[in-house]
Amino acid sequence: MTRIPTDCDFGIKEQSQTSEHISGCLQLAILLEVSAYPKPGNIHRTTNFQETRYEHFLASVVAVRPYFKSAAEQGFRVSVGRIGPDDVGIGTTIKNAVMSVSEWQNGGNTLLGSIILLSPIAVAAGMTLAQGAYSLNKLREGIELVAKSSTPADAVALYEAIGIAKPGGLSTAPQLDVTDPASRKRILEDNVTLFDVFQIASEYDSIASEWINNYSVTFDLGYPYLTQQLHETKDINTATVHTFLKILSEVPDTLIARKLGRTRAIEVSEEAKRVLQIGGLTTPSGRERLRKLDQKLRDRAHRLNPGTTADITAAVLAINILNGYRP
Fold first, then answer.
1. What are the tens digits of pLDDT across the range 155-201?
2. Which of 63, 120, 257, 281 could staple 100 via S-S, CB 3.0–4.6 A?
């Protein structure tokens, strides 16, 4: 395992090692999330979509390594005062990572949501480790600083990233619609930051809501539940699937809501809650109910794919791995 320096005097070699460590933690989080099975309605190690396969996600994880690493290095620079938090270029990190993903595989959008959530974590982890005293509280403070320090240029870069990834479920937004080319000009003219954009989107997108609410689902719901499940089940696959179900049960998936409406998303959440109530993967009845839910959520158009829940689950795994967990 890569050594993590405990003092504040980071040389170039130590910065590189620690940035590699941070990137590795985030890559492992995505790998564990996409590998967990059977996550209902999602791609995992035993189930693919027709146009997007498990292997496309593996290639995508390779693609993001240098961008999570550079994001962590930007965090070091902020910590020592070489740049300000508004100079991090979080939007460019997201855009470049998405471009790399599109070059490494042909399965379409695989990691846009995860990249949006994990990039600020990478920067904050670099800031926190450079300060020498790592803690989840300090990590979360760093995430908040990165998010609130975003710029209009970051917002434009995000719009460009979305244009590259072409995610499903996009619908016309009431303000600064991402599909409207004029939105980017308005963002720069009106000095609209990426944080501002996510404030607008937070009512109908859980990833945007995480940015605005300092990752409340990740830290306050998902992380405690994951650690509890790891303690009780001693199995990372079970703990990951149950955490996915827990988040889905309490936070209706906004990707489903954008495709089929909030009522349908709430119905899926109720189904996830019932699976957990009867034991999930730890009981025969729970496994059977989960199997039926998985079948129910699969259609050729993937309208019932809880993809946003998967992205938040990856963020939960990331902070747990950064905190020292190893499978």
1. 999 999 999 998 876 665 667 888 788 899 999 999 999 999 999 99
2. 63
The DSSP output letter for 220 is I
User: What pLDDT is recorded for position 173?
Assistant: 65
Average pLDDT over residues 22-35: 98
Q: Are 120 and 211 spatial neighbours (Cβ–Cβ below 8 Å)?
A: yes
- In sequence order, the 6+-apart residues with CB closer than 8 A to the CB of 38 are 44, 46, 47, 241, 290, 291, 294
More confident residue, 253 or 133: 253
Taking the C-alpha atoms of residue 321 and residue 18, their distance in angstroms, rounded to an integer, is 14
Residues 6+ apart with CB under 8 A from 57: 30, 34, 43, 107, 110, 111
CA distance 216 to 289: 29
**Cα distance between residue 279 and residue 292, in whole Å:** 15
Kindly list the structural domains of the chain, giving each domain's residue range(s) and its CATH number in brackets, ordered by start.
12-322 (1.10.4200.10)
Q: What percent of the chain has pLDDT over 90?
A: 85
Q: Which spans in the chain are helix H?
A: 12-35, 54-79, 90-104, 112-130, 136-148, 152-165, 182-189, 194-201, 206-212, 216, 223-233, 236-250, 254-260, 262-277, 284-296, 307-322
